[in-house]
Amino acid sequence: MRLRCGDEAFDVQVRESGGTLEARVAGRVFRFALEPAGSDVFVVRDGTHVTTLHLARDGAAIHLAWDGVAYVLAEEREGARSAPRHDPGALEAPMPGRVAAVKVAPGQRVAKGDELLVVEAMKMENALRAPRDGVVRAVHVAEGDMVAPGRALVEVE
Amino acid sequence: MPLFRKVLVANRGEIAVRVIRTCRVLGIPTVAVFSEADRTSRHVREADEAMAIGPAEARLSYLSIDRVLAAAREAGADAVHPGYGFLSQNGDFADAVRDAGLVFVGPSGDVHRRMGDKKASRRLMAGAGVPVLPGYDGDEQADDRLLAEARRVGWPLMLKPSRGGGGKGMRVVRGEDGFLEALAASRREAKAAFGDDAMVLERFVERPRHVEVQVMADGDGRVVHLGERECSVQRRHQKVVEETPSPALTPAQREALCAAGVAAARAAGYVNAGTVEFLLAPDGTFSFLEMNTRLQVEHPVTEAVTGLDLVRLQLEVAAGRPLPLAQEDVAARGHALECRLYAEDPQRDDLPSPGRVLHLSEPEGPGIRVDSGLDAGSEVTVHYDPLLSKIVTWGRGRPETIERMRDALRRTVVLGVVTNLARLRAIVEHPAFAAGELHTGFIEEHLPELTPHPCPPLEAVAAVAAALGRTGDGGGARRAVPDPWASLGPWRLGEVL
Q: How far does the CA of residue B55 sit from the closest CA of chain A (Å)?
């Protein structure tokens, strides 16, 4: 199984061995027992040492808390190719929100760091800035649009 | 005989739940209002009645005076509690509620307007002997006049829009070069955000602390203070951790600060619960910042040390009763700390992070209180404030309070929505926090140590892989019905790995 955390990938092999789980990851071997303890909760035993694992899945996103600290991993399915690197000049919505302002138009020349548009979520305005010098090739959204994370907003070439 | 026939709570989330709780204790029936996004939210379920007031967008629901008021009339409420945020400091709303023959649980529209104007409130406070920073709060706003006043005030100084808040349009200017440019930018932002570009100039204080005084006033002119709170741990002018008493004040300073808070409330002609915010300079001098004409987010720390229920006091005063206590009846015991749990990602520059709560564990134990508007299954949407819940601990002293907070945070689990929980843990475990070395730039100053690691330790990755194998590929760990594989016990392994 391959789990991703940002740019890091972890290949994990798990097998049972004499009543204990054995997991190999990044050249290390962990031996433990795992018991479900209600919905989304597991008890992980290493000898008498006990750690609580909270685990919930949302599509490919694996939300977990280990010893009370939360993380998000992504499960990479076998055969699935990693997502193609997106065009570095394309600006995507970093989070869901509402487009509060569009400050550029196609054809406009922009410098790296110029404010292109403003996305508002949870009362906070987030300015999206030009990733490099260039010309605005396309603007895919208008003021007032609701956008989902990853949606292409503006392209700069 | 209850204080009111029925109270409409014009808010959502944890504060609506909080207000409903006290109404229930007092035997007052409550009406919740909800937007389309909040149909099944906790505040709706805890109220006696609930009325739809519009779409998810706040402007058309929680911020619509007409819709909230229509709901209050239709429900037969005789009082409206505004909570904080939304319409709570809107003078027109306070007036409209009163004009409709209902009681607004808060001060009058005039008081909201008076204190919502920084120029006017600064002049009012200075006139009442409440210390203000050297600055300019005049009505003449021409650029050259402001430049002349800026030279008089001295550098560095702070440019502040006279209306508004939340840090919008505020700028530090360190010298005459760039003043006019900064002024133009601040004015643009203020005009866009608040519809008014009048500015106030104030001497800038380096490494200030934020302290504030909780006041309570009744309709007969009685004013008491309920001590101070320190809210120096902030991020982008947003409070993150608050406590009382402030570790920075000597008893003499505390007495002077609280007396200034009372003087400010009197000068404002204040009625009901309010908070007078001050900036505390490293040399120990304090100056008036602004007055918040509503219940504060961080009011539970005051409740923890005084044993008072501030919402109850608000309702009593609003019902025309005299304050049930005099200054000498107010006694604070121990220490209290509040951490605000936000749906923000500290690894991505505190970007808001909406989502669905897949799992929620809230802490409990001696000296722990959680004010939450959240459930497992709640949808945290982009439409509202990112505050999810507040974790409050009380202890005999500051060290015990911090220890309890560390444990409370360790036992809080939110899955599905990225929160600032790891940052909160890092703050209360930081040696500078333990030493009480706070200032409003605390988080920026210690940012590397306060930014959590994105990836789990390898043993956690190993356990996750094993657990995912256990629960099978398709259903996932979050299915409500226990996975049949899980019930086979710890030693049965799936072969899906």
A: 14
Nearest-CA residue of chain A relative to B476? A57
Whether pLDDT at B492 is above 80: no
DSSP string spanning chain A? -EEEETTEEEEEEEEEETTEEEEEETTEEEEEEEEE-STTEEEEEETTEEEEEEEEEETTEEEEEETTEEEEEEEEPTTPPPPPPPPTTEEE-SSSEEEEEE---TT-EE-TT-EEEEEEETTEEEEEE-SSSEEEEEE---TT-EE-TT-EEEEE-
The mean per-residue pLDDT over the stretch B96-102 comes to: 98
Record the tokens describing residue B471, joined without a space.
């629960």
The number of beta carbons lying within 10 Å of the beta carbon of residue A130 is: 20
User: Phi/psi zone of residue B442: left (φ > 0), alpha (ψ -120 to 50 degrees), beta?
Assistant: alpha
Our CA dihedral for B105, B109, B112, B118, rounded to 10 degrees, sits at 180
Share of chain A above pLDDT 70, in %: 93
| The one-letter amino acid at B53 | I
Residues ≥6 apart with Cβ < 8 Å to B69? B96, B97, B100
Parallel, antiparallel or unpaired: strands B30-35 and B7-9: parallel
Task: Flag whether pLDDT at B173 surpasses 70.
Answer: yes
CB A132 within 8 A of CB A157: no
- A135–chain B nearest CA distance, Å: 25
Residues 446-475, chain B, touching A (beta carbon < 8 A): 452, 454-471
Nearest one of B344, B474, B349 to B414, comparing CA atoms: B344
Residue B481 exposed, middle or buried by CB count within 10 Å (0-12, 13-18, 19+): exposed
B237 lies within 8 A of chain A by CB = no
Per-residue pLDDT tens for A32-46?
999 999 889 999 999
Q: Is B488 on the interface with A (CB under 8 A)?
A: no
Q: Do B464 and A73 touch (CB under 8 A)?
A: yes
Residue of A nearest to B189 (CA): A125
Q: Do the Cβ atoms of A95 and B353 come within 8 Å?
A: yes
Flag whether residue A124 sits within 8 Å of chain B, measured between CB atoms.
yes
Return the structure tokens found at B379. 């949808």
Q: Are B384 and A35 inside 8 Å of each other by CB?
A: no
Tens of pLDDT along B213-228? Answer: 999 999 999 999 999 9
Of all residues in chain B, the one with the smallest CA distance to A58 is: B416
CB within 8 Å: A63 and B415: yes
- When CB atoms are compared, the residue of B352, B409, B479 closest to A121 is B352
Nearest residue, CB atoms, B359 vs list A14, A56, A98: A56
Model confidence at B284: pLDDT above 70 = yes
Closest by Cα among A69, A103, A149 to B456: A69
Q: Which of residues 29-88 of A touch B (CB under 8 A)?
A: 30, 32-36, 39-42, 44, 51, 53-58, 62-73, 75
- pLDDT attached to residue B83: 98
Q: In this model, does residue B493 exceed pLDDT 60?
A: no
Any idea which residue has 């309070």 for tokens?
B401
Q: Which of B413, B494, B28 is nearest to A67 (CA)?
A: B413
